[in-house]
Amino acid sequence: MSYYEVLLFLHVSAAIVWIGAGIAFQLIGIRAEQTRNGPFMQGLAESAEWLTPRLFIPASLAVLILGILLTIEGPWTFDTLWVVLGLAGFAASFLTGLLFLRVEAQRIDAAVAAHGPGSPDARRYIRRLNVVQRVELVLLVLVVAAMTIKPTGDDVGTLVLFAAVLAAAVAYAGWLLRGQPEATAPATEG
Fold this sequence. Notes:
Largest sheet: none
Number of domains: 1
Distance between the termini: 69 Å
Shape: globular
């Protein structure tokens, strides 16, 4: 067994953990939305907060670091299209987490503290967070597809398919969120 094969095994294993946990969490999130059970939804949000630094961040960083090591160790370069797609997908996922998901989780916490876990505000924020996470999950699955198919610039059909799937996921998310009223701001004492 070569060093490259060990890196590849670890890289694929970390990706399985990251994406598998994301898929499982989304299914639980769908169930939470369907039940409208406030304590269940609050428990899910608390679990997400607990799992993020213990599972999602370490697994995603392992995927990134091992992928970089694989590129250095293997016959690949950082300007290879599918490597660029993988890095871009990671960057998009990282920025989504940093700029949206973290902020939205804080909004959920504030709404739950102010109005309870079953409040319309908390449910709206949870729904919005779940929808964005679903689009992010589609993006990550597309990254896995790029890593396994390894498209080049000549694979126009594959690249168009990837773009169409991502565009459809974004459009569907927009449709799900369209018409969803904005959460009300908590009343302030004055």
